[in-house]
Design goal:
The protein has 26 helices and 30 strands. It has about 1000 residues and is of the alpha+beta class. The relative contact order is 0.04.
């Protein structure tokens, strides 16, 4: 700042500045400050181009003004005293020297000016004129170089302002001195600005590089925008470099300056908000951003005429610079010493902004001061680098800790695997010896023992995977390489994997040709590779084919395992060979996620490669290569050896559900009715299904199995069910989705659902109950717990069904008094009119009462003749009561023999008469239709009564009407759904009638 201060110098007095004794050899120019002559509303130099002409001007309008300063008090204007034009004049006395070049530097005159020296036009910014329309306002620095032959320099400056209502005139001092001194000062100021611009630009570049190549934090973008706004404040302010390269009119220059400062403020605010979102003040950030948007609109749409608007814009700009240093200081004291760099940077940029405001609104002589902006950039960059180095150090420490933890984890898994494998092998040996001894004569028990051995072997393979993974990491696996026939190994592995496909519509197909050359491989490890690949294929293939192929070419055998399963996306394919990685997110195959990782490492140990290609929803193909034992056995021309159609047919091994022996479960479509509860078990894993069936078979339940949610939904409508047991994690449709779909048809009491889940976290349990489950059991399942929960739920179902039947019987037994009174009144009236009709009515009333109190009403099903006789008695009574108001039409097919729930037709008929026909004075017709279809009997009750609106129609079976219509329909609907899976179907049109239909199976 000292370099920019002018030296001690004389001041102008009464329009004259005496510099005859001044040493112009000084390095710094002086400021032409003091008393200047001012001629308001006159352009003197335009009347005369000579000094003599100027001397002859009248002195009556001349005023003495202080320069630098505003001319507000010296102009007369009706609108604003800042608007107008005038002439500044100063005579400078120097020693005559025609060899001494002088230079005048005009930094800022608001808002158009031109410079005359000794009557000659030497420079201008814009064009000042007496009319606002003719004035071209441009505020840009300019200079003039000349000599003083006579020892007197007459300086005349014309100025005009019609745009800035706040300040006008010569608000900055005019620099004067030798040409070398003025040029040196200008070059120093411009040079420092260019240096700062370059520094800021470099920081913009590295911030963008960090953003696009590293972690994409929004704070980096706001940092770059903050630096860009700072650059604009530099090129638009001080020496206004942008205006020298691209001249802009004064109004647009003023707007761009305001916008650049506003941008710096907003981007600083956003930068800090994304760095420290926990600051309380940022909770109201949206209000500040709204104020900033308003300020931007005002900058673009208004001029500098209104002080209140200018004050609002200044406050919006200053707000972040005033509060952020305090926030940083508080953060530094609390918990983050690195924030001290941000604190210093915020203080520096705040000082830069304050000095800019002071310079823009005062006559204080200050050149461009670069250190505060450089300090800001250094402080902000230091914070970023400090955080980077700290993060790098912490990352290195965490990586080392992670390695140790990973090693401990591997050691723990290996030790656990060893500890579990020994007792497991003992269990398998004992089970195998019992099976081989022939002491088990019961076929069902022998199958159970085989299942136990299969599950144990599966667990043993998983434990071996854990042990092998650690051995592979430590390089302790030694291959026993020999000539191995791939087709033989593949056939054996397919037989091993066959039990996993039980209950799934999956075919295992071996398409390896019999003439395939042998490979150099460790047979045990080749079995492990194929088993893991086929096991993975079975897990993620709900239905379709799993095919093993092989071909020889280029000295290698390429073995392919293809499936038609769920497939994988590109992202999953990139990580599928990593340890502990699971496959498709839509499947839950279980296991540790080690199989494919071990496959890859074992294949690479053999000198081969393994690749995967997959399409989501269409399937996956794994291809790995092994070296040929004898490459000379390849056909000439290196043609691939493929299986012929005959060999493929001969070697194909297909496994389907129908060929598999069922263990304790009965085929779902042909299950005869028994006295035990009927349970639907749903699980995509056949091993889990068999275990479940064996546990529950001891209680003599009738169990039907399904391997998917879609299959379970299709089975539900075939029979009446007492319980659904479903696994949670299944392909295509999870247990949660299946439960929700069942709840659309059955309430929680009509069909209980028991979930089997491996997860017992509160959120998982809540999700199960939210979907509509009654209970859950965590896996591995405890047999006693499972049997207890199944028993409780089936008893609940039976008790609910019994309650519904008793409720229906009780409802019918509670004969409404008004019905009985009306009937008796009718009998009394007929005794005087028609005794025959009275007798017939008494007989039908007796039949009706006997049917109402009949014990059969509490049964589950009764012959349809029983129900129809009851309905005829009821209709006969109603016909006698209402006479011509009631018209009954029967349409019943002959020879219908079917069992239906008791009291299922009568409530529909009574509802149609009471709430449909008798609501109108003229009554109406009721049509009762019983139709004999191929597999079911359809029963419908149709009336032409008042009908129901959409709201009543939607809620009549749910019991949610504001004015309940009784519970007869609700009870009938629930009993039908429990028995047949489908309830009442109602169609109604207001004013036209209602049709209620249901169907029963033969």
């Amino acid at each position: 700042m000292y370099l920019n201060f002018p030296p001690d110098q004389p001041r102008a007095v009464q329009g004259v500045l005496d510099l005859r004794d001044w040493d112009f050899a000084s390095e710094r120019p002086i400021s032409l400050k003091g008393e200047w002559e001012f001629y308001p509303s006159q352009f003197l130099a335009r009347h005369s181009g000579t000094d003599t002409g100027l001397q002859g001007q009248t002195e009556t309008s001349k005023k003495i003004v202080q320069v630098p300063g505003h001319w507000k008090s010296y102009l007369t204007s009706e609108k604003n005293s800042s608007f107008g034009y005038g002439t500044y004049r100063l005579r400078v006395l120097v020693n005559p020297d025609r060899h001494q070049p002088y230079e005048i530097r005009i930094h800022r005159i608001v808002s158009a000016s031109e410079l005359y020296v000794n009557g000659r036009l030497m420079g201008q910014a814009g064009y000042p004129d007496v009319n606002a329309e003719q004035t071209k306002a441009i505020s840009v620095p300019y200079s003039a170089v000349f000599t003083a032959d006579s020892g007197e320099i007459d300086i005349v400056i014309h100025a005009a302002n019609y745009y800035n209502g706040v300040s006008a005139g010569m608000v900055d001092p005019v620099k004067f001195g030798s040409q070398q001194a003025v040029n040196r000062a200008v070059e120093f100021s411009v040079g420092t600005q260019v240096v700062v611009i370059l520094i800021l630009s470099l920081h913009i570049i590295y911030a963008l590089i960090f953003f696009f190549l590293g972690v994409r934090q929004k704070s980096l973008i706001y940092f770059a925008l903050l630096m860009m706004s700072a650059i604009f404040t530099i090129v638009l302010d001080d020496d206004r470099l942008l205006l020298q390269w691209m001249p802009l009119e004064y109004e647009w220059h003023r707007k761009l300056v305001s916008i650049s400062f506003l941008g710096a403020s907003v981007f600083l605010f956003q930068y800090v908000r994304h760095l420290f979102p926990d600051f309380v003040v940022f909770r109201a950030s949206r209000w500040y951003l709204v104020a900033a948007c308003i300020s931007l609109i005002l900058n673009l749409s208004t001029s500098a005429l209104y002080p209140a608007i200018n004050l609002f814009k200044v406050l919006v700009v200053l707000f972040p610079f005033l509060i952020i240093p305090g926030l940083f200081f508080q953060k530094t004291l609390k918990d983050d010493p690195d924030v001290v760099f941000l604190c210093l940077g915020a203080i520096s940029i705040m000082l830069n902004l304050l000095w800019g405001i002071i310079k823009g609104n005062s006559s204080m002589e200050m050149g461009y001061y670069p250190l505060d902006m450089i300090a800001t950039v250094i402080a902000l960059a230091s914070y970023w680098f400090r955080r980077y180095f700290r993060a790098s150090t912490q990352t290195a420490l965490l990586a080392e800790k992670l390695k140790k933890t990973d090693k401990l984890k591997d050691d723990f898994l290996v030790n656990t695997s060893h500890e579990l494998r020994n007792p497991l092998h003992g269990i398998l040996s004992i089970a195998q010896s019992v099976l081989d001894s022939g002491s088990i004569s019961d076929n069902n028990s022998r199958e159970n023992m085989k299942l136990l051995i299969s599950v144990g072997r599966r667990m043993s393979l998983m434990l071996n995977d854990l042990i092998d993974l650690n051995r592979l990491k430590e390089g302790r696996i030694q291959l026993q390489v020999a000539n191995v026939q791939v087709q033989t190994v593949a056939s054996g592995v397919l037989d091993m994997i066959r039990f996993l496909t039980e209950g799934k519509p999956v075919r295992l197909v071996n398409q390896i040709p019999g003439n395939l050359p042998g490979v150099m491989a460790d047979e045990h490890r080749l079995i492990q590779i194929l088993f893991n690949l086929l096991h993975n294929a079975v897990k993620y293939t709900p239905e379709g084919d799993i095919v093993v192929k092989a071909q020889a070419k280029a000295g290698k055998v390429f073995i392919m395992v293809s499936d038609t399963g769920v497939g994988m996306d590109k992202e999953t394919q990139l990580r599928i060979f990593q340890p502990y990685e699971q496959g498709s997110a839509g499947m839950e195959g279980g296991g540790f996620g080690l199989g494919l990782s071990i496959c890859k490492q074992l294949v690479e140990l053999h000198g081969g490669t393994i690749e995967v290609s997959s399409t989501p929803g269409k399937g996956t193909t794994f291809t790995f290569s092994l070296p040929l034992t004898d490459p000379s056995r390849l056909p000439s021309g290196n043609v691939s050896v493929l299986a012929s159609s005959d060999s493929v047919t001969r070697l194909e091994t297909a496994v389907s559900v129908s060929e598999l022996p069922a263990v304790a479960a009965k085929p779902k479509a042909d299950v005869p009715a028994t006295e035990g509860a009927r349970i639907l078990a749903v699980d995509d894993d056949p091993v889990n299904v068999n275990v479940l069936v064996n546990i529950l078979s001891l209680d003599h339940y009738e169990i039907v199995t399904a391997s998917s949610g879609k299959e379970a939904l299709a089975i539900l409508s075939e029979n009446e069910w007492d319980l659904v047991i479903t696994d949670v994690m299944m392909p295509q449709m999870s247990g949660y989705e299946l439960t929700a779909a069942i709840r659309e048809r059955f309430s929680i009491s009509e069909l209980p659902i028991l979930l089997l889940t491996a997860r017992n976290r509160p959120e998982d349990i809540e999700a199960g109950f939210h979907s509509g489950a009654n209970d859950y059991v965590t896996k591995p399942v405890d047999a006693m717990e499972l049997r207890s929960r199944v028993r409780a739920l089936t008893e609940l179902k039976n008790s609910v069904g019994e309650r519904l039947r008793l409720e229906a019987a009780w409802l019918q037994a509670q004969i409404q008094p008004h019905f009985l009174f009306n009937t008796l009144n009718t009998i009394a009236a007929l005794s005087d009119i028609d005794s025959a009709r009275m007798t017939a009515l008494l007989e039908e009333l007796g039949k009706y009462l006997r049917a109402s109190f009949d014990f059969n009403n509490s049964k589950k099903l009764v012959p349809i003749e029983h129900e129809l006789a009851f309905v005829r008695s009821y209709l006969f009574i109603e016909k006698q009561r209402h006479d011509d108001r009631l018209d009954v039409v029967w349409e019943v097919d002959d020879n219908i023999k079917v069992q239906i729930p008791p009291l299922s037709i009568q409530p529909l008929v009574e509802n149609a008469i009471r709430h449909g026909l008798m609501k109108r004075a003229r009554g109406g017709k009721i049509h009762i239709r019983v139709t004999n279809c191929k597999e079911y009997v359809e029963i419908s009750v149709v009336d032409d009564g008042v009908g129901m609106d959409d709201y009543t129609l939607k809620n009549v079976l749910e019991g949610t009407l504001e004015k309940p219509r009784g519970i007869g329909l609700i009870n009938t609907n629930r009993r039908l759904k429990q028995i047949y899976g489908k309830g009442l179907h109602i169609e109604s049109i207001p004013g036209q009638g209602t049709a209620i239909t249901f169907s029963v199976k033969k």
